Amino acid sequence: MGTIEKTVISVETTIHAPVERVWKLWTEPIHIMHWNQASDDWHTTRAENDLRKGGVFFSRMEARDGSAGFDFTGRYSRVEPHRIIEYTLDDGRKVKVVFASEGSETVVRESFEAEQTYAQEVQMEGWQSILDHFRKYVEGSGESESLHFEVPVRAPVKKVFQAMLAERIYRNWTSVFNPASHFKGSWEKGSKILFLGCDPQGNLGGMVSRIRENIPNSFVSIEHLGIVQGNREITKGPEVDGWAGALENYTFKDHSGDTLLSVDLDARKDFISYFNDTWPRALNRLKDICEAE
Fold first, then answer.
1. Within a 10 A sphere around the Cβ of 150, how many other Cβ atoms?
2. Chosen domain end from 83, 108, 140
3. Are residues 110 and 167 both part of a single domain?
4. 69 and 87 share a domain?
5. pTM
6. How many domains does the chain have?
7. CB of 134 within 8 A of CB of 26?
8. Residue 2 domain-assigned (yes or no)
């Protein structure tokens, strides 16, 4: 029997950003979670990316109402930074992504082997829509940066996970950010939660958020929706610029019975210096608590 030749579909977009930034936002998991959806009623609740030849990637894509979801996974066969990515999906289809630098702009071209379930036009529309979401995200993300912090903890993952979310301990380790720091709400996936504190005059403030993902002993993603000012929850308007839509992700990995706790978050540029100072101190306080108890 002859081999059936697979149909290859191509989509592309031009992005007003240099290739170095386009590559960064295409490949880092916290950024993937922002743009990896074909429509606004879907989102990515978790992403992992081992960006090297032979490395694997994973994205969990779900309807925002929780009615459906699927995993998008594969393995890299070629990675040339700022130029080319090639990978094979778990269903065997091959994909190639080319990044063409044109000075202050970058052209991204994706070519993928079509599958048999959906019409080719539908597949093209879906992949193009995701690519268009990526372009809009890159061009609109100039006011924030992603930050990464991590700390090794000589304690089991389960202990660290439970300690981080426990109300009493949460108040302790996050007091680095604000002496009155506490939360109000639930850590359950999809739940609304408020992260609160007080300014020097005693006025209540903080963040309005929801739990985007909670995989016990593995991963927690917080999506910030807006801010709290006194008894007001503000989710629209200039006050929430740079905060609404920001993610704060916690990853727990077992290392021979110990834990590597990583934090990835979106930060407004005017808060980067503050976070670079406070986050390491907060994580070391959590580390000391977990190792002492």
1. 14
2. 140
3. no
4. yes
5. 0.93
6. 2
7. yes
8. no
pLDDT tens, position by position, 96-110: 999 999 989 999 999
What is the SS3 string spanning the chain? Answer: CCCCCCCEEEEEEEECCCHHHHHHHHHCHHHHHHHCCCCCCEEEEEEEECCCCCCEEEEEEEECCCCCEEEEEEEEEEEECCCEEEEEECCCCEEEEEEEEECCEEEEEEEEECCCCCCHHHHHHHHHHHHHHHHHHHHHCCCEEEEEEEEEECCCHHHHHHHHHCHHHHHHHHHHCCCCCEEEECCCCCCEEEEEEECCCCCEEEEEEEEEEEECCCEEEEEEEEEEECCEEECCCHHHCCCCCCEEEEEEEEECCEEEEEEEEEEEHHHHHHHHHHHHHHHHHHHHHHHHC
Residue that the structure tokens 């930074």 belong to? 81
Same domain, 35 and 55: yes
Domain residues for 191?
A: 146-292
Pair 179, 228 in one domain: yes
Q: Which amino acid is at 71?
A: D
Q: Give the CATH number for residue 60.
A: 3.30.530.20
Say which amino acid occupies 152: P
Instruction: List residues bridging with 251 in a β-sheet.
Output: 219, 262
Q: What is the pLDDT of residues 216-234, one digit of tens each?
A: 999 999 999 999 999 999 9
